[in-house]
Amino acid sequence: METIYDIRKIMRFLPHRYPFILVDRILDLVPGESVVALKNVTINEPFFQGHFPEMPVMPGVLIVEAMGQAGAVLAYASNLREEPDSYHMYLAGMNNVRFRSPVVPGDQLVMELKLLRKRSKMIKIAGTATVGEKLVAEAELMATIVGVK
Prior knowledge:
Blueprint: H1 7-13, E1 25-30, E2 34-40, H2 60-77, E3 87-99, E4 108-118, E5 122-131, E6 134-147
Antiparallel strand pairs: 1-2, 2-4, 3-6, 4-5, 5-6
């Protein structure tokens, strides 16, 4: 896959910053349809200090957050609104969330999401997170759009 967005371009879309930006690269993006994003999971992640020191595992809620951030990039890139800095998206709901396998340091988490529905103030996406060929999580996510200017 060809890199579409590097971290600098992702940071133009997302308000998140270290340690909470959880998307390193957009591998593929079809505006209005789908996104494939990558998160390199390293032992340097701050959450591994406490989750769990003897057996580090990426928290499932952060896997879902990474999926949500990738979906936000898809929504912004789909010309949801004219200026990405004029509004934010906030997670509004989750359905059918399942965790299938742990994610550990050294893994490359690949998230594939599809835009299911787009309305003026809401979006709905669904997708999966994999490590290699192994499914580690799946979810349907809804976000609300709130203007900031």
